Amino acid sequence: MFTGAIVGFALLVRESRTLRKLEYARFRELFTLLSDGIIVMDPNRSIVYTNPAAIRMTGWDLKDTVPYCRYCQERNIGSGEQRCLLAQDRHRSYFESQLPTRVGGWVNVGMSRTFLMPRNDSKKRDMVITIRDVTRELQEEELRLTRRLTHHTWEVQEDERKRLSQELHDGVSQSLYAVNLGLDHLAKRVSDTDLSQQISELKGQMRASIEEIRALSRTLYPAVLYSLGLVAALQALADTLTTSERTISYVTNMHPDTKVPPETSVHIYRIVQEAVHNALLHGRAHFVVIELIQNEDTVCLDVRDNGSGFQPKNTESVGYGLRNMQERARAVGSDFHIESKPGEGTTIHLRIPIHHNSLFLPDQ
């Protein structure tokens, strides 16, 4: 019986050791598969353990001495202080800096640390540093800030356009109109035929100037967009730009009272305005078609022209106008596609998700 107890105890010890080995293997596998880097270093900053993620990020391996991060290399320290901030400040468990890599250069990392229990009778403890590559996070944050700045710039531009439009309409246009009335009054008091002809020509030039000012005012700030909405504003744009020498055709299946969020409306309107401007000015087009078609879950915007076209090898390297359209398309949740060949005109495509912009049909 006593022998059986000993055998049973031996089996229990063996099973316990087996379980510990399995647990150790699981922990080792866990550290191996982690996407965050793990570095365990002794008080002399020599690496006693590291995982593959840390090696990929820094290139440093077992028995290497871990270099200080850029912040710790450059910071001022007092007498008796450790240069490593995480080792010196026990209340600080995380901060972001740059670690030097084995091959040269730096990697942006977020670092957190903890300490292991002392080994044997030593009071010194190994430090465990967990590192995460935050380069992508920094890039994403920079992109978010850039887009916020772009959107703020658009808002400022719209406000400035509104102010200039009002000044042109209420100031310059009214002044020219007053001059035109004065010319009318003067023409009635002049009997000289040649002088009357000159006054008549001046009046014609004045009327043309007034129309140009009004057209510029409408371009800067399309009041119809804010009063009647996007569908009506695009129709007004097509009507205004259509002349005896060119035709701007507008096709839509959207109800004139369809409500579109103001910011979305401005982006779509400015994209169409820029596309038509490019077609007429650069493409020398005589015919432009604007299509705004609402389907079940998208609004499709196409602007086609019969102009000279171009070779859009890389739309990222082209002028400000196309880049602005690309950014505005992204703001309404759409990709920006452009098709063009020399001599075959140009077409731009947008597919705007309705759910992204809360578009809806008018109340019945």
From TrEMBL:
Q: What enzyme class is recorded for this protein?
A: transferase
Molecular function as annotated in GO: 4 iron, 4 sulfur cluster binding; ATP binding; metal ion binding; phosphorelay sensor kinase activity; protein dimerization activity
GO CC terms of this entry: cytoplasm; membrane
Matching InterPro entries, A to Z? HATPase_C_sf, HATPase_dom, His_kinase_dom, PAS, PAS-like_dom_sf, Sensor_HK_TwoCompSys, Sig_transdc_His_kin-like_C, Sig_transdc_His_kin_sub3_dim/P
Tell me, in one coarse class, where this protein mainly resides. cytoplasm
Keyword terms of this UniProt record: 4Fe-4S, ATP-binding, Cytoplasm, Iron, Iron-sulfur, Kinase, Metal-binding, Nucleotide-binding, Transferase, Two-component regulatory system
Coiled-coil regions listed: none
Q: Which Pfam families match?
A: HATPase_c, HisKA_3, PAS_8
Please state what the protein is called. Answer: Oxygen sensor histidine kinase NreB
- Write down the species: Alicyclobacillus mengziensis
